[in-house]
Amino acid sequence: xxxxxxTYRLQFRNGMTFDHATALVPYLQKLGISHLYASPxxxxxxxxxxxxxxxxxxxxxxxxxxxEGFDRLSAALRKAGLGLILDIVPxxxxxxxxxxxxxxxxxxxxxxxxxxxFDVDWSRPLTLPFLGDEFDTVISDLSITADVEAGCLAxxxxxxxxxxxxxxxxxxxxxxxxxxxxxxxxxxxxxxPADGEAFHAAIRTALAAGAxxxxxxxxxxxxxxxxxxxxxxxxxxRKIHARQPWRLTSWRTxxxxxxxxxxxxxxxxxxxxxEDEAVFDDAxxxxxxxxxxxxxxxxxxDHVDGLADPKTYLDQLRQKIGPDTYLIIEKILGHGETVxxxxxVAGTTGYEFISELxxxxxxxxxxxxxxxxxxxLRGRPxxxxxxxxxxxxxxxxxxxxGEVSTLLRLATEIRAAKNEPAIPADAMRTALREVLLTFPVxxxxxxAAGMPxxxxxLLADVMNEVREAGRADAEALTFIKHIxxxxxxxxxxxxxxxxxxxxxxxxxxxxxxxxxxxLFFRINPLIALNEVGSEPYPREHDxxxxxxxxxxxxxxxxxxxxxxxxxxxxxxxxxxxRLLALTEAPDLFSEAVNxxxxxxxxxxxxLPDGAAPEPALEWMLYQSLAGVWPPELTIKDADGxxxxxxxxxxxxxxxxxxxxxxxNWGEPNEAYEAAVADYVRSLFGNRIFLSDFIATMQPFxxxxxVNGITQTLIKLVGPGIPDIYQGxxxxxxxxxxxxxxxVPDFQHLAKQLAATTHLxxxxxxxxxxxxxxxxxxxxLRLRQDRPDLFAEGSYIPLTASGxxxxxxxxxxRNKGEETVLLIAPRLVLAAFADHPSPAALDGWxxxxxxxxxxxxxxxxxxxxxxxxxxxDERLSVAEALAGQHFTLLVAEE
Length: 893
Prior knowledge:
This protein has 893 residues and is an alpha/beta fold.
């Protein structure tokens, strides 16, 4: 396998096309990137901003440049010696009429050739929850129409045209005494799903206008008029609707009554059944072609935990792409969880690495003080275990009520088939609820063959915890456990397997939505810790844990990606790095928040259910503003402040709705949201506050710049393959999506990189990201020169001693004679209190590093300055840094 030495994640769409990406190849090459890592490129819904809503898994999106544009990009990458990794989406596709497969099952129902492609419960009509209200309420907005472009009769709802089943055409047209109606009915009478294209073509011909048309414009107008008259009687619409293989319902009912598996809570994304070999082949035809013809070197598998059987899927994919294709998975690892050793992947996309980095930059004592200050402001202590239960309970009771109902129905059927006494519905529901609320990781990996040993142990632990808590009926718990472990008669094995898989496909989304997309917007003592891949439970942060995590990373997934920003992170990596410095001066920040609240108190709104924003939300807003504020932005720059306020308001709306405390996406609380938005606008207009805010935060921004360099160096040198998210090679202060998916100013980035011939050292260079960009470029070239060292080299923690031992993180990578040694600063906020400049980082004279055998008594070259350093058993940090403040020392052979 030709492993990447680094990857660069590029988000297509939003203005980024294949031709634009092709123009970036020289820049990526100069930066030292080995592989372009592309977001999904297959055709997605019109106006798609991310590409995960695929409508055609075998067509490269024309809006990006189509196959020709892709081939040009591929050729440019090959010529420059760069590889390509594609992000693919096997778990779901868009539940959109733009999707031919989905459209086919809407039109033909269970008769469709694609009926088994999607995870649909065909025991009832396909639910289409896309109405603004209940069917009868919006019936005046519905009509039967002849869709000329699609070549069918359809039930129209505003711009949507839901195709009628051809076998129902006769009933629709029965009372329309027109030749054109008779012709359409005749065509439909003999139609079949297998020749759907021919059927649609024949209908289009019948409805066509022009000189060659079979019927005149007057005929088609007469048909339209007749259908309009038919639609004017609501009873006609009800009868026609009732004959279809689908039911149009309100979007509000999706959580309760959906007949298909969806991605998380997104009704517009329907689950695929790639566990079916025919579906797998259909969904992967083109991507496999691109791998086999050499256009694609690696694949990233989106949401692997959503699949019915991840291991079997990955085994099948590996067999088809061969042993040399780089393969990684998007997976959230829980505390202590690792990727299964028998999965044929290089590792994950690296979310867990973000959490591991916090051990370097968090001051434990300060974090505890920050938590206490937050609780005082909030007016009550934060009990994380209870908060997690509340968030998971909301997901179980409301957001995933339909998925829960499906599981309970399956359990009831299995119980009845075993001729065992029924368990009360409430008892069964409570037991299932407690099992899912207690799950410590995303899922287990049971299949039709049973539950693996690790899954059995996990289930046993979960069941014991629920029993000991006394929250569920013992008989119901035992019954659920038997189903999950497959302890049922052979005649019920299929139903037990379905239950097992459905529960596993629910536990992941329920956990993700509870933690990442609810709790992390609710509890905000230090928002930098509220990140994808992190857990909400308090823990100690120190270098001992960090080094242990890096050594485990080297052992478990040395070739997985190490990311620090992605399209899904809650904030940019440099924003997090800056906010982590708050733990070094918690009193300074909490006192500032109290002062700022006073300066902005006039903007608080009094609503019937309390103040808006409430104190805890104010705390979060000030932290978020501290993370996103550009260091060069002054109160004199009205345009810059206005631009930032627009971005910030978009973030605030999302944060409020994701928290689901006062408002949510389904039922927005307009009064509350407006009050908070007014408060935010007032912050940006309050010059007294802004002056105080900027002056107070200056030291934190400097400490954040240092943290940003340190975390970047760790990513570049530590175990794993460094992934650079677009634009994050310089200062990345982005907010949650869509803010973090903006196309960077690549022209500026390329110009900045090309213009620099030495490591920048000015204050401005530190704060604007120029130093970071040069560090990345030089370290990535080192990785290209010494791939074996970074892919296979050992990880050796180095111990500092002396006056500032606690302000250094250091480790070495070693393979044979090849060695690189990292020294970087940490916890340095105090240095900037009176002197906000990199020069404040001096003062390492009394600090040394102990070098073990193999590292000591060697000559090293500083990667950034070229200086030669001779190191014995004790290395002077001051000599190694020499005013540069960080270093990568490369052993001379």
